[in-house]
Each structure stands twice: as structure tokens, then as C-alpha cells.
Write a structure and sequence with these properties.
By secondary structure, this protein is of the alpha+beta class. A hairpin with a 6-residue loop joins β11 and β12. It has a domain of about 170 residues: Orthogonal Bundle (Helix Hairpins). Helices cover about 50% and strands about 20% of the residues. The strands form three sheets. It has a six-stranded antiparallel beta barrel with strand order 1-10-13-12-11-14. The two termini are about 100 Å apart. The protein contains three helices and 14 strands. The longest helix is centred in the first third of the chain and has 89 residues. It is rod-shaped, with a radius of gyration of 58 Å.
């Protein structure tokens, strides 16, 4: 027979156990809610975060042999500090050749300039002289023609006087033979005839002289025309010389550009640090032969490091630029860095990989993608807690304030095409 006391005891134990289980569950729920509210609410976190920096990869712009190396790995350098020098002898020789070519071209230009000036003055004087000679010859021809015309008119009048004098003489000669006039009248008629004949001969001589002078003036005009034509040809030669001078001027500009290039290449024999930081990945030694673009070392600006955190795409719904971030680096347990969201990448890491996924293929498997988020530190890392590139970290974004943008705005100076 069952004892009633034992049954009541078992029932009480069961109730107590249920009460304890309910109480424990309620306590766990309360504690979980409090933990979620204080540590997870309005926060997204990832341990896929690493320290990054905009490092400068040092390379040469020209080929050459390493002459001196002034830094080693982990050396601190300042902006503009000389890191490497190359053997400058080949480039100094090229500079000397360019300077000699420039001096030679300038000497040729000077000589050509004198030749152009001399030819220009000479041909201009020849043209002016020939043009003046043509004008003078034409004036003499016109003057001779006018004089010739006047002589011809005068000859006509003298011929008329001669004809009258000849008729009078013939009449007086007949009358004298008939002894009808005195000898004195015959003498006057004879004198008048001789005078008219002499005048005609004189006019004819003057006409011949004027015609000869006209012919000479026309010959002089022809010679002046020939000289003017020759001088005009000389002007074409001056034009050719001027074009040659212009070609020398263009050649001087070309040689000057080569000289400037030679000077610039000589300056490339000194390789400076483009930014301040610490030397890393030094890969050369003194005497090495290097080529343009070959990576020689890197300058890491540890004071300008930032965090690149790769959040899942499902975590970015409330993430905005400017939100505060707490960073815990694995190298410094218990130490927290403060920062803020500086940018959210325009694509996932897989989209920019060397071999992006082909989701259109038949063997597609959905994978949650990660988007890089850039986090800037509010202050430079302290000297006793420096951050180095590649260190792992845990980044937690506080998303309470969601007023910021999800995309960074373009800078005011940026110009966009219409």
C-alpha cells in the first residue's frame, strides 16, 4: 500500500523543480535582454578587420645602377628625404650633349639671322635702284619722244621754207641769166637757199640724235627691268632664307625640349621619399641594375593608418558615414581605439577580386558577401600603441545616429560632364 506522505513529497519536489526552471529561464531571458540592449543593440561588429595605410611604393622613373642607399628597413624618413641615388654619369653626358646641341643651333640661328638681314637689305636696295632706273628711263623716253615730235614739226616748216627758197633762187637764177636783175638779188636768194638747206640738215641731225637717245633710254629701261626681275628673284631667295630661319627656330625649340628632358632625367637619379613614414620591403642593394617601375621599397605612413573592416552585407542596413567606431586590436588586448566611418566601398570584395564570381553559371551557390568599410582613427595611435599594416582587429560600429549619408559626396572641386 502506497504511503500518502511520499506522494505529496514527490509532487512538491516536482513543483519546486518547475518553479526553479521557470525562474532560471526568466533570469536568463532578462540577462540576455540586458546584454543585447547594452552590448548588441544599435551595434554591428566584425573581427574581419585589418590595419591598412596608403603606403607609397618606391620605384625609379629611369633605368640605372644603384650608387648609394641611405635607408634600411624600419628607418623613419621625412617627405623629400633622399632614399636612393643612381649613377648619374650617363645622364650628365646626355645633358652635356643637349646643351652643346642647343649652343650649335643658336649659333646657326645667329648666322642665318645675319644672312637674312643682309640679303633683305641688299635685295631691297637692288629693287629700289632698278625701279628708280626704270622710272628715269621711261621719263627720258617720253622726253625724247616729245622733243622728236617738235623737231619733226620744225622740219616740216624748214622744208616749206627750203622749197620757197629754192623756187625763188631758180627764178632769180633765170632772171640773172637774162640780166633782168642785179647780182645782189641773186646772192640774197642763194644765201637764203643755203641757209634753209643748212637748217634742214641741222634738224635732221637733231632728229637722229634724239632718236639715238630714245633708243638708248629704252635700252636702259630694258636693263632696269632686267635688274628689277633679278632683284625680285633675290627676294624669293630672302623668303627661302626666312623659312630656313623659321625651321632653325623650331629646331631650337625641339633641342631646348630635349635639354629640359635631359635635365629632368638627371634629377631622377635622386629618388626622394614622396611621403613621411617608415621604410619596409627594401629589395635592392648597392650596385643593382634597376628598371623603371621596379618596386624598390615601400614607405609606410604609420601615423596615417586606418582600419578596413569587412562587414556582411546584412549588417550594413543602418551603417552611415560618420558613425563612431570602437576598435580593439588583437596585438593590444584590453586597449580600445576610437574612430569613425569614413567610407563604404562601392562594391563587395568579391566584385573587385582578380577572378570575380560568375553568378550566371549553373553551379551557383548563394554566399553572404562582405563590403569593405573604411574607418579613420580619431587620433594618431600613441607611441606606446603603434598600429602596423596587416594587424587584425575587431571593429564595432555604433549605429544609433543614422542621419549621415550612405555614400560619400563628391568634393566641391570635382567637375562632372553634362
Amino acid at each position: 500500500m502506497q504511503n500518502p506522505t511520499n506522494g505529496n513529497s514527490n509532487q512538491n519536489n516536482r513543483k519546486n523543480w518547475l518553479r526553479g526552471l521557470v525562474g532560471f529561464s526568466l533570469a536568463a531571458l532578462i540577462l540576455g535582454g540586458l546584454y543585447w540592449f547594452f552590448f548588441l543593440y544599435n551595434r554591428v561588429s566584425t573581427d574581419n578587420a585589418y590595419v591598412m595605410a596608403d603606403s607609397a611604393m618606391i620605384s625609379s622613373r629611369i633605368p640605372g645602377s644603384v650608387q648609394e642607399i641611405f635607408v634600411e628597413n624600419d628607418t623613419a624618413v621625412k617627405t623629400g628625404q633622399t632614399l636612393i641615388t643612381l649613377d648619374p654619369r650617363d645622364y650628365q653626358l646626355a645633358l652635356d650633349e643637349a646643351e652643346a646641341a642647343l649652343n650649335r643651333t643658336e649659333a646657326e640661328m645667329k648666322a642665318m639671322g645675319f644672312s637674312v638681314s643682309q640679303s633683305d637689305i641688299q635685295t631691297s636696295a637692288q629693287q629700289d635702284s632698278a625701279r628708280s632706273g626704270v622710272g628715269e628711263a621711261q621719263d627720258r623716253v617720253r622726253e625724247g619722244e616729245h622733243k622728236l615730235e617738235a623737231l619733226k614739226q620744225q622740219r616740216i616748216a624748214v622744208q616749206a621754207d627750203l622749197a620757197i627758197a629754192r623756187r625763188d633762187f631758180e627764178r632769180y637764177d633765170r632772171l640773172l641769166k637774162q640780166q633782168a636783175i642785179a647780182q645782189q638779188q641773186w646772192d640774197r636768194a642763194k644765201t637764203l637757199l643755203d641757209k634753209s638747206s643748212a637748217q634742214l640738215e641741222g634738224i635732221d641731225a637733231d632728229i637722229q640724235a634724239v632718236e639715238a637717245s630714245i633708243a638708248a633710254a629704252r635700252q636702259a629701261e630694258a636693263r632696269s627691268h632686267a635688274q628689277w626681275t633679278s632683284a625680285k628673284g633675290g627676294r624669293y631667295s630672302v623668303n627661302i632664307l626666312q623659312q630656313q630661319f623659321a625651321a632653325l627656330c623650331a629646331k631650337r625649340e625641339e633641342v631646348l625640349a630635349q635639354l629640359q628632358e635631359a635635365r629632368l632625367r638627371l634629377t631622377y637619379c635622386k629618388i626622394p621619399a614622396p611621403i613621411g613614414g617608415f621604410i619596409a620591403q627594401k629589395r635592392i642593394q648597392k650596385g643593382d641594375r634597376i628598371q623603371p617601375g621596379q618596386v624598390l621599397m615601400a614607405v609606410v605612413p604609420l601615423e596615417g593608418v586606418y582600419i578596413e573592416a569587412n562587414f556582411k552585407e546584412t549588417q550594413l542596413k543602418h551603417v552611415r558615414i560618420g558613425q563612431p567606431v570602437t576598435i580593439n586590436a588583437d596585438i593590444y588586448p584590453g586597449y580600445t581605439f576610437q574612430g569613425k566611418v569614413a567610407g563604404i566601398r562601392a562594391g563587395t570584395g568579391a566584385a573587385f577580386s582578380l577572378l570575380p564570381p560568375e553568378n550566371a553559371t549553373g553551379n551557383w551557390i548563394k554566399v553572404v558577401q562582405r563590403v569593405p568599410v573604411k574607418i579613420r582613427l580619431n587620433q594618431k595611435p600613441p607611441p606606446d600603441h603603434p598600429l602596423r599594416i596587416g594587424l587584425s582587429a575587431i571593429a564595432t560600429i555604433h549605429t544609433e545616429d543614422r542621419r549621415g549619408p550612405m555614400l560619400m559626396a563628391a568634393p566641391p572641386s570635382a567637375k562632372t560632364e553634362p
